[in-house]
């Protein structure tokens, strides 16, 4: 489906192209799915509960596993304009700012992973994805409250009393997903023991920092991440620090500059400037959920945070949502006709995605790939930064190398080869 130039070559002629797909939630995951389904010729509708399309939050990392898919969707030039490709990550001591290690990234990582590692403002990426979906395909002010799935289709019920119908329902409605609740039952958030204070500051207010670099100031339990966004004119900061339980599973609670000052007191004096320059401070209480044992029925499935909310230690929540969106579009485009074809396509999607996202979800608790040992106790309250400071290319290649589109195409080829071999064997045995 893609060329080496990174352009999608989908023809939109797959057998699933007659399907009407409803997506609840116009976040980064829902919009990626919508853009990818639309480009493949499916009849897609997005239902967003907010009155206008917008994205909360600050900056984010988009790994090569995400950027290669975004470029194939056609967002290469827009990313080149708005995002930053950091040249390196410097890990510094929190107490005095001394350099502990430097990981070169930039062109080296781009070559190694066949796509760039970028930092971007979430609002910029959200606008880019929204530009790929025709406005008449997105309905705002539509909060899904419940749905009914039958053998013939799915009926969606909205808070304003209206209804709509679809062949397939995709729950991309975030961590408090209505669709997840109906599909998988109620489950509780798992608190990590940490909260994150975060926001954006003008790069000019932090003249000691180089806007072509990412920084991690690492202490025994607290760490400060700083990375450039908006073409290098701003830095996003994320200060992760232990905090008692009790806060909401929310991204958007208000924090105070005084909270930032208190956490950064006694740290490298250069970080004191951050506390002074910070305007609006948000507090994110770091929760995730246990991985689901399954997330699809015959006509309904989940993606992104609705399917696998994860901690940010690998910077992968949105990247995995992007991978989900593209994988789902491929599986639905290639669905065989009829209800059985839809069910098989959703099984194929979940079978491709769930094992991988489960590994990333569990690995995000510690910042390293999960092993039997470190997932047995789930590391929920592991506040140590020892693993999280290990950010060399090898330690994250299991995530960044993933090309979900190529994997699905390769599986197709392998299946076709098996089919051809079987046919050949049948012919041979018949002879
Ligand atoms: C501070 C911070 C830093 C992060 N850094 C990174 C990073 O560097 N890299 C990365 O990959 N990820 C990062 N993440 C995680 C990432 O942002 C999320 O995993 C990702 O945004 C999830 O996207 P989503 O589309 O699944 O869900 P959401 O973005 O939560 O979108 C869900 C949408 O559904 C809508 N909705 C909800 N309920 C309903 C309903 N009932 N009906 C209709 N619509 C509904 C919501 O209004 C929203 O628009 C970070 C997160 C935070 C908070």
Structure, explained:
One of its GO terms (molecular function) is FAD binding. Residues 20-359 form the FAD-binding domain. Residues 353-392, 409-431 are annotated as: Disordered. Its cofactor is FAD. Residues 377-392 have a biased composition (Low complexity). With 431 residues, the chain is α/β, with parallel strands linked by helices. The chain folds into two domains: 18-52 and 140-188 and 289-374, FAD/NAD(P)-binding domain, CATH 3.50.50.60; 61-121 and 191-288, D-Amino Acid Oxidase, Chain A, domain 2, CATH 3.30.9.30. It is built from twelve helices and 18 strands. It has helices at residues 28-39, 64-82, 106-113, 122-130, 178-184, 257-264, 269-277, 317-333, 338-363, 372-376, 393-400, 404-430; strands at 20-24, 43-48, 59-62, 88-93, 99-104, 118-121, 138-140, 144-149, 154-158, 163-166, 168-171, 190-202, 213-218, 223-229, 234-242, 253-254, 282-288, 300-302. Strands 5-4-13-14-15-12-17-16 form an eight-stranded mixed beta sheet. A five-stranded parallel beta sheet has the order 7-2-1-11-18. Helix 8 (317-333) packs antiparallel against helix 9 (338-363). The longest helix is centred in the last third of the chain and has 27 residues, at 404-430. It is globular. The two termini are 37 Å apart. The relative contact order is 0.16. Bound molecules: flavin-adenine dinucleotide. Flavin-adenine dinucleotide binds at residues 24-30, 47-50, 57, 60-61, 143-144, 172-174, 178, 196, 198, 238, 251, 284, 304-306, 312, 315-319, 321.
């Amino acid at each position: 489906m893609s060329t080496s130039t990174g352009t999608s070559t989908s023809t939109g002629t797959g057998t699933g192209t007659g399907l009407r797909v409803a997506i609840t939630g116009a976040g980064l995951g829902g919009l990626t799915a919508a853009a990818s389904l639309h480009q493949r010729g499916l009849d897609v509708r997005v239902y967003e509960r907010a009155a206008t399309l917008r994205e909360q939050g600050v900056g984010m990392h988009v790994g090569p596993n995400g950027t290669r898919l975004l470029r194939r969707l056609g967002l290469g030039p827009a990313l080149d304009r708005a995002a930053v490709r950091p040249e390196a990550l410097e890990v510094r001591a929190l107490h005095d700012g001394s350099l502990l290690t430097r990981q070169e990234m930039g062109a080296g990582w781009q070559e190694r992973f066949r796509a760039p590692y970028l930092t971007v403002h979430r609002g910029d990426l959200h606008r880019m994805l929204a530009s790929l979906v025709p406005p008449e395909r997105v309905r705002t002010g539509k909060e899904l409250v419940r749905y009914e799935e039958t053998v013939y289709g799915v009926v969606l019920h909205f808070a304003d009393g209206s209804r709509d119908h679809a062949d397939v329902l995709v729950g991309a409605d975030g961590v408090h997903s209505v669709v997840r609740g109906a599909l998988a039952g109620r489950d509780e958030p798992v608190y990590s023991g940490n909260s994150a204070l975060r926001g954006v500051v003008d790069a000019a207010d932090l003249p000691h920092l180089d806007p072509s670099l990412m920084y991690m100031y690492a202490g025994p339990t607290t760490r400060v991440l700083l990375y450039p966004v908006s073409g290098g004119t701003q830095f996003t900061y994320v200060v992760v620090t232990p905090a008692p339980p009790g806060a909401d599973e929310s991204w958007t609670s208000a924090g105070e500059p005084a909270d930032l000052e208190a956490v950064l007191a006694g740290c490298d004096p250069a970080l004191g400037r951050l506390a002074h320059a910070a305007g609006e401070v948000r507090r994110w209480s770091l929760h995730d959920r246990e991985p689901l044992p399954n997330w699809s029925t015959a006509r309904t499935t989940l993606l992104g945070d609705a399917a696998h909310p994860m901690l940010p230690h690998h910077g992968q929540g949105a990247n995995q949502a992007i991978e989900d969106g593209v994988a789902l579009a491929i599986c639905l485009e290639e669905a065989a006709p009829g209800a059985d074809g839809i069910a098989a396509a959703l099984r194929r999607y979940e079978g491709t995605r769930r094992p991988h996202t489960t590994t990333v979800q569990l690995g995000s608790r510690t910042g390293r790939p999960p092993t039997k040992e470190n997932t047995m106790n789930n590391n929920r309250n592991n506040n140590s930064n020892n693993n999280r400071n290990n950010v060399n290319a090898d330690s994250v290649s299991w995530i960044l190398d993933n090309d979900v589109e190529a994997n699905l195409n390769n599986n197709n080829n392998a299946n076709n080869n098996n089919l051809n071999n079987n046919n050949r064997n049948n012919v041979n045995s018949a002879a």
